[in-house]
Design brief:
single chain; about 250 residues; alpha/beta; Rossmann fold; 9 helices; 7 strands; globular
Amino acid sequence: MSKRVALVTGGNGGIGSAICRELAAQGHVVVAGYFPPEKESAEAWQKQMKEQGSTIALCALDVANFADCERAVAQITEEFGSVDILVNCAGITRDGTLKKMPEANWKAVIATNLDSAFNVTRHVINGMLDKGWGRIVNIASVNGQRGQFGQANYSAAKAGMHGFTMAVALETAAKGITVNTVSPGYIATAMTEAMPEEVLKSIVNSVPMRRMGKPEEIANAVAWLASEGNGYTTGANIPVNGGLFTSH
């Protein structure tokens, strides 16, 4: 397997951590992008990953800021080489019904969850085109496919992310680059585990498999899409949701 440089935005999150570990286990040089104000917690996370056997580099990266993404990608390129594998995983929620949603909550979610895909991908795509090889995986959500009450901002951003995937896949298909989306369902992370027990029970009962997904199950899908062997799947939206939402 060729050693590649992988950038995972939101790499120190619950799903991002699993993706970083899996890509590192495959021998890639992995860089986790983190929100700059979270430097202290990101460094503690990096130490924990190392203690668990995964060596992962860090890069401060405000995915909602185009210029900062340019700076970060240039920094990564200088230190490790151009990015071969990009996983756009950074995301936030600011839930609330539309009739009560402040403009700031709409804009924050769109900027972090959707604008980010453009902001980061725009700065790595030329390096991939020059090499004639690249793997881009965008982490969307089942709620971008089916919608979710109280998540007009989040659902719109995640649906838009797959639209971005399909367009960029067409632009790069003849250049050795694949671009795909993974849409997780409800995944067991520290954030979901902090929910009230009755809420968790309701979620599990709504999933045909009757359980939450594991971050590692998302990471496995990402790793396959990012692999050398996946040269012919592009523009796809891979559901990893336990049967919560199915489509033809």
